[in-house]
Amino acid sequence: MLQRRHFLQAGAAAALAPWAQMQALAQTSGPGYKALVCLFLFGGNDGNNLLVPIDARWNDYQRARPNLAIAQDQLLPLNFSNGGAARYGLHPAMPGLQALVNAGQASFVANLGTLVRPTTKADIQANRVPLPLNLYSHSDQQGATQSGWADQPPRHGWGGRLLERSVAQGAANRGYAAISVAGGNIWEASDAGLTPYRVSPGGRFGFDFYDPAGSDPLSSAITGLLAEQRSNAFERTWLNIVTRSIENQRVLSAAVNGSTLTTPFPGSGLGQQLQMVAKLINAQAALGQSRQCFFASIGGFDTHGDDQLQRQNELLGEISEAVAAFHAALLEMGRADQVTLFSASDFGRNLPSNGAGTDHAWGSHHFVLGAGLPGGRLYGRFPDLTIDGPDDIGQGSWVPACSTEQLGSELAAWFGADAATRAAVFPNGAYFPRLPGL
User: Fold this and answer.
1) Of 38, 55, 61, which Cα lies nearest the Cα of 339?
2) pTM
3) Class assignment of domain 25-204+266-431?
4) Mean pLDDT computed over 255-266
5) Strands (E), 213-288
């Protein structure tokens, strides 16, 4: 049998349960199931090579980064329904995402970034507006993007704040409203009592070696320990947490094991993450949730001196394959209009090359996938690619034309949040207009 000390250590490490449940502040969810999936690209993805103009503006793009520019005939054409005469191409490693955009199942948001107030280059030069804290810091901008609160240190995330106001206290399995398949994150952290549940993409849920009814020595020892009466407050709390963890694991394991999907997923890390998200969505009826938020991630986008072309080719290819499989699974489940996946990252990167890769910048381009939203469109405003031009605050760093809060507020509206709830979730949201068309 495990020594008691070792079991306490193992149990503390595996205590996954979202056991503290405080009162939700408002109930504003509409009917039917809806889920948001945040796909975070850690490191600051170079959006300048993700979405590229393939009209006359390509020449400005190529001049700024001759060693990193993708040839026009290699870029994958996107047929934006609202693009007018402007033409755009997608990174060549992403045919799966290209097909989704051109089929009206996905869209792009151009020049998105953290903002405190609507901001222009002239505003910055005249020092008229506050700027996000520590603008080019990875950790600070990851927190600002996920919190939706760029002028304060991040304490919780807009996904968690949204769920706290959308899922009623006492709802069955309320803790499963926020599930991460990529470890801890700020986006799902609540400002009240809802605690995210972390799930392994491989389907391991902690105490899977323990059978409460088992007679094997290990199960018997654990059952006996959990049944002990303790006078020490810390020991009682620990026993309570582990007991609830085991029960939550049992519920979640049973739900996922009963979730059968035939859609094949790539064996990549992100493929496994999104496959688990799909299984959890398919288990929605067993879990009884009408609103959920999921967090997935992929890293490696901090391409200062790497072979950026090769690195992005690998990472963006992995994203495209995994997202395409995820959409196919949603179609299999009949939930393509009930789930919205969106990408996010620390920040963008400079348009000019630093000789090998690119450095930290500001605005970037992101995609949104969901049949419940108008697809096949380009939202926001694409930046002027002129170095030292109207959108460049230095070295090809674009002032965002669209705030992460603007996009988040539109996704929250789709989620079912009314205006009052969106105002509570996004403290600076009142300073920004609605994102037209989304």
Assistant:
1) 38
2) 0.90
3) alpha beta
4) 87
5) none
